[in-house]
């Protein structure tokens, strides 16, 4: 027993496995968030064990370097969450909503070309004119569109570049409205309501038909 203890205390210095693990976690900490947390925890544990073993464990340099990188990774992700995400998220939502509306407006315009008029009801637009995912959302009522092109014929639209056939409700995108025009274009504007958007851009808003 005593020989074993003597060998365990008198052997060559060993490297702390936690110190190496701490450095690895820190290096990957800028990709996800949790490895940085793990790196900070492992780094502190490694430094404590190294100090308690009084020279029998080494690797304090790697543990300290990893600890610094871990804290930098935590600070990076926290700043990203606090400052960048709140700014970028509305733009991402707006871009996705505009792209979806472009698909819908193109479908309405293709329908108008085939039948010489827009559908009487928005839900009457055949799914063949829309991407499958968007058609399913519309049929299920999971959309924020207001359709005002009910039964309009192209020859009755004097100014297609100013006439609205579809728009989104402003409350869904923080007072940002997507407007689909009869010429197939979709434009996003900052406005509290569609009337304000029309007044600002000189658009024509047809009255919805019952």
Explain this structure.
By secondary structure, the protein is α+β, with helices and mostly antiparallel strands. It has 6 helices and 6 strands. The protein has helices spanning 2-10, 17-27, 34-52, 60-115, 132-139, 194-201; strands spanning 14-15, 57-58, 145-147, 164-168, 176-181, 186-190. A 4-stranded antiparallel sheet has the order 3-4-5-6, with helices on one face. The chain folds into 2 domains: 2-83; 90-201, no CATH class.
The helicity comes to 40-55%
Low-confidence stretches: 1-9
What class do helices, strands and sheet pairing give? alpha+beta
Q: How many domain regions?
A: 2
Major β-sheet profile: 4 strands, antiparallel
| Percent in strands | 5-15%
How far apart the termini lie comes to 95 Å
- Choose one word for the global shape: elongated
Sequence-ordered SSE layout with sheet pairings:
Blueprint: H1 2-10, E1 14-15, H2 17-27, H3 34-52, E2 57-58, H4 60-115, H5 132-139, E3 145-147, E4 164-168, E5 176-181, E6 186-190, H6 194-201
Parallel strand pairs: 1-2
Antiparallel strand pairs: 3-4, 4-5, 5-6
Structure summarized in a few sentences:
With 210 residues, the chain is of the alpha+beta class. Helices cover 53% and strands 11% of the residues. The protein folds into two domains: 82 residues; 112 residues, no CATH class.
């Amino acid at each position: 027993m005593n020989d074993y203890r003597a060998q365990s205390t008198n052997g060559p210095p060993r490297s702390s496995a936690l110190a190496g693990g701490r450095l690895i976690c820190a290096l990957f900490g800028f990709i996800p968030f949790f490895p940085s947390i793990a790196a900070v925890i492992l780094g502190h544990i490694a430094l404590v064990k190294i100090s308690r073993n009084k020279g029998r464990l080494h690797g304090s340099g790697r543990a300290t370097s990893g600890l610094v990188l871990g804290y930098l990774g935590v600070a990076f992700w926290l700043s990203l969450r606090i400052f960048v995400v709140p700014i970028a998220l509305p733009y991402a939502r707006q871009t996705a909503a505009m792209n979806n509306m472009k698909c819908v407006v193109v479908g309405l315009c293709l329908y108008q070309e085939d039948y010489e008029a827009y559908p009487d009801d928005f839900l009457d637009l055949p799914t063949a004119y829309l991407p499958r995912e968007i058609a399913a959302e519309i049929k299920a009522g999971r959309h924020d569109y207001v359709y005002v092109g009910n039964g309009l014929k192209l020859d009755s639209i004097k100014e297609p570049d100013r006439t609205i056939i579809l728009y989104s409700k402003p409350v869904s995108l923080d007072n940002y409205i997507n407007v689909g025009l009869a010429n197939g274009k979709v434009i996003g504007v900052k406005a509290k309501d569609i009337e304000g958007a029309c007044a600002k851009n000189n658009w024509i808003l047809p009255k919805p038909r019952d």
